[in-house]
Design a protein that fits this description.
216 residues; Rossmann fold; nine-stranded mixed β-sheet; 11 strands; NAD(P)-bd_dom; NAD(P)-bd_dom_sf
């Protein structure tokens, strides 16, 4: 299975590309914004597509034309304004979904926010509510497609070393989780088809990731 990782140069994306390249049955195609970022991925043996998420759908579709699955890990980051949040976390996500459909790819994994309910938008601090709203509507758009989708809602992300263990369910108590472990959750979601049509929250825990995924 060839997997297009959108947002590959992000912290989750880099872990994911490495894990995919280490898997016997998977091959990564890293979608990055700047060609200067390509060396890291080429050194791993991954393919590279240089596409800006603010480009049109056709540009993203061309990156997805020869893959079997798409993973959206991109984000505008915590230091950008509301405009970038809407252009990347909402419009970029929707364009990627539409490009995936246009390319004839069925499998799509979305990295969302921990809670993207309407209540979460209303309760979020003013500085965070645009991000939650963007993720909310991107999730709604994906749910309304016929793609074989999985929506992953990670807890508060850290750069700690992953443990390989998580707590994972439709609803969990808020907690933190290592980005490395989220990348492993994505990998496991790609290889276990029981995650199709599902969405779940993930935080640190004591259950091995493959076991947690297979118990969904």
């Amino acid at each position: 299975m060839k997997v297009l990782v959108v947002g590959a140069n992000g912290q989750i994306g880099k872990h994911l590309v490495q894990f995919i390249q280490d898997h016997d049955d998977l091959q990564a195609k890293a979608m990055i914004r700047n060609k200067e970022q390509a060396r890291f991925f080429k050194d791993l043996g991954a393919e590279v597509a240089v596409v800006d998420l603010e480009d049109d759908i056709k540009a993203i579709q061309q990156a997805a034309d020869d893959v079997d699955a798409v993973v959206f890990t991109a984000g505008s980051g915590p230091h950008t304004g509301k405009d970038k949040t809407m252009m990347i976390d909402l419009d970029g996500a929707v364009k990627t979904i539409e490009a995936t459909k246009a390319a004839g790819v069925k499998r799509f994994v979305m990295i969302s926010s921990f809670d993207t309910t309407r209540e979460a938008i209303q309760q979020a601090p003013e500085s965070f509510s645009p991000y939650v709203a963007a993720k909310h509507y991107a999730d709604v758009w994906l749910r309304d497609t016929d793609l074989d989708h999985t929506i992953i809602h990670p807890g508060r992300l850290t750069n700690d070393a992953g443990t390989g263990n998580v707590s994972l369910a439709a609803t969990t108590q808020p907690d933190e989780v290592a980005r490395e472990d989220i990348a492993r959750v994505i990998l496991s979601s790609l290889v276990h088809n029981n995650t199709i049509g599902q969405e779940f929250q993930v935080v640190q825990g004591d259950t091995a990731i493959d076991d947690a995924i297979q118990s969904l």
